[in-house]
Amino acid sequence: MRWQPFLAVPLVVVSSASWGNVYFSTDQAQQAMFSGGKFVQVPLRLTQEQRDLLRARSGVHEPFQENRVWSVPDRGFFIIDQVVGKHELITYAVGLNLDGSVKQIEILEYRETYGAEVRNPAWRQQFVGKTAVSPVKLNLDITNITGATLSSKHITDGVRRVLAVYDLALKGSAGAQR
């Protein structure tokens, strides 16, 4: 029997542990924005033309999830959307007033390791009152957050998309009526 050298190969284990925090459930965010409101899911069906317009207006390429829109009769709309921050999805909710202006924004889930400053109330307050005709552009009417540039940009783009959803598909519907 001959002796053969044995080469040890180091074993490398790669962990794909994810980082993330859940700040609000859907119900909690709904009540934070429209306390005591009745939420009626909107059976939204966007056409391909509307989808193309959403992408063109917002620059957001992730598909808009049509099953995450609720009417709050005589008060407005509650919409959940997602955008990619730097690498991971950010789930946020936008409350819209009857006239389609932003009432409030809440971050529901933030999965990035950095940039959670987008949860800062002062930063989110910049969106209040914005409508589909507002620029809603980072460094134009929305201030950037250093260290959270991509999250800031993508949430800004996402809010612009939610406002476009209102403009293209919800404005004039029963939920938007006074």
In short:
The protein has four helices and six strands; from the N terminus they run βαβαββββαα.
Can you tell me about this structure?
This protein is α+β, with helices and mostly antiparallel strands. The protein is 26% helix and 19% strand. It contains four helices and six strands. It has helices spanning 26-33, 48-58, 121-125, 149-170, and strands at residues 21-22, 40-41, 69-72, 76-84, 89-96, 102-110. A six-stranded antiparallel sheet has the order 1-6-5-4-3-2. A hairpin with a 4-residue loop joins strand 4 (76-84) and strand 5. The chain is globular and about 75 Å long. The chain starts with 20 loop residues before the first strand and ends in an 8-residue tail after the last helix.
Q: What's the arrangement of secondary structure elements?
A:
Blueprint lengths: L20 E2 L3 H8 L6 E2 L6 H11 L10 E4 L3 E9 L4 E8 L5 E9 L10 H5 L23 H22 L8
Antiparallel strand pairs: 1-6, 2-3, 3-4, 4-5, 5-6
The portion of residues forming beta strands comes to 15-25%
| N-to-C CA distance | 92 Å
The average pLDDT is 88
CA radius of gyration: 21 Å
Query: Which of globular, elongated, flat, extended, rod-shaped describes the shape?
Result: globular
Count the E strands. Answer: 6
Strand arrangement across the biggest beta sheet = 1-6-5-4-3-2
What's the multimeric state?
single chain
Specify the number of helices. Answer: 4
Structural class: alpha+beta
Major sheet, described briefly?
Answer: 6 strands, antiparallel
Instruction: Give the H and E element order.
Output: EHEHEEEEHH
What portion of residues is helical? 25-40%
Q: List segments where confidence is low: pLDDT < 50 over at least 5 consecutive residues.
A: 9-18
